[in-house]
Amino acid sequence: MSDATDAAANAGVMPVREGFGVDAAALERWMHENVAGFEGPLEIFQFKGGQSNPTFKLRAKSGDYVLRRKPPGPLAKGAHAIDREARVLSALGGTGFPVASVYGLCTDASVLGSEFFVMEMVEGRIFWDAALRDVPMAERRAYFSEMNRVLALLHGLDPEAVGLGDYGRRGNYFERQIARWTKSYLADADAGRDPGMDRLIDWLPAAIPDGDESTIVHGDFRCDNLIFHPTEPRILAVLDWELSTLGHPLADFAYHALMYRMPPDIVAGLGDVDPAALGLPTEAEYVAEYCVNTGRSGIADYDFYIAFNFFRLAAIFHGIKGRVARGQAASAHAAERVAAYPRLVSLAVDAMETCKATAGSSLRPEKD
Predict the structure, then answer these.
(1) What separation in angstroms does the CA of 44 have from each of 3, 47, 86, 280?
(2) What per-residue confidence (pLDDT) applies to 360?
(3) Model pTM?
(4) Each residue of 199-223: pLDDT tens digit?
(5) How far, in Å, CA of 59 to CA of 46, rounded?
(6) What is the CATH architecture of 137-363?
(7) Which of 2-11, 70-79, 107-116, 300-309 has the lowest mean pLDDT?
(8) Are 100 and 122 in contact (CB under 8 A)?
(9) Which of 36, 102, 195, 318 is deepest in the core (most CB within 10 A)?
(10) 357-360 contacts at long range (C-beta below 8 A, 24 or more positions apart)
(11) How far is CA 231 from the centre of its chain?
């Protein structure tokens, strides 16, 4: 392999970080027994992403693979559920939905020190910039349409039919989520209180729109969690299913649509640009396209769903603020989250005020 080819093959990977080492010999033995066609020896690299569940690139004589495992050390109950990720990937792969194939799941922590699974290495492009500046302007709308189509496809799947009928609780999704993050916010006295969060906590439970739905939701559907074809506007694999469950599809779509209002220094977002000037659909156009893709006549009280998602993110960042105050999270990454927290609260409050001002109105697809 030439130096240039080697560099391209290892784009986005690095040597395994200290404290995240993988016992290559033990992994090779397991793969010989559990992964069809595997031939060693193994080379192991670590992907730069995968902060929650460490993710590794495995290079072998038989090809490249991806390893996802639980992180080392004590873990919160129910967190880092590797087995759930493997389950949803296997279930969706059987429907033709774009995900990597799972080759094997190991629930025996004695093999590598934590549970893990090995899956297909899907080669393609990941965009870390929601503006898609690396794509020719004339092609950018097609990439957005593909993201919209694939998320709508996920929401159209019948959980029972694909074997995921028990993948999460059904019904009252917003009530449960608002209560959960309110409890988290109020319990962390070290992070203090925020007038905007207090207003949101008062308003959100009473503002939940009518109509309950339950579908498979991804929970973190963003451009940087998607692998696109090397040259085409086509998604080959949706990544990072750790937050997936059964939930309300409009919560999932609105989380994805936060990119239109999200400052790009917090999460991949378009909050500081004019989408039309970059050849991208506007937020209203993108919502309308989702309605067409899902057969909806419109989304009433759309800004409620936006406010809810910014509130949820703000509550998560509030928890980080508390850990920093207690000296439990002193990294630069944590400090950045603390700095971003007030902006997320402000964005949630802005969406709340818009929802109040437009109560009962609906974003609808235009008629031909």
Answers:
(1) 18, 10, 20, 38
(2) 63
(3) 0.90
(4) 999 999 999 999 899 999 999 999 9
(5) 11
(6) Alpha-Beta Complex (3.90)
(7) 2-11
(8) yes
(9) 318
(10) 358/301, 358/303, 359/301, 360/300, 360/301
(11) 23
Q: What is the pLDDT of residue 39?
A: 96
As given in the structure block, the two tokens for residue 92 are: 């969706």
Over range 220-241, report the average pLDDT: 96
Which residue has 């999932």 as its token pair?
A: 252
pLDDT for the residue numbered 8: 34
**DSSP per-residue string spanning 288-333:** HHHHHHHT-S-EETHHHHHHHHHHHHHHHHHHHHHHHHTTS--SHH
The token duo for 265 is: 């220094």
pLDDT for res 327: 84
Q: What is the mean pLDDT of residues 212-236?
A: 96
Distance from C-alpha of 98 to C-alpha of 199, rounded to nearest angstrom: 40
Cis peptide before 41 (omega within 30 of 0): yes
Beta pairing, strands 102-106 & 245-247: unpaired
Tell me which amino acid residue 362 is: S
DSSP annotation string for 85-151: HHHHHHHHHTTT-S-PPEEEEE--TTTTSS-EEEEE---SB--S-TT-TTS-GGGHHHHHHHHHHHH
pLDDT band at residue 5 under the 50/70/90 scheme: very low
Could you tell me the residue ranges of all domains in the chain? 3-120, 137-363
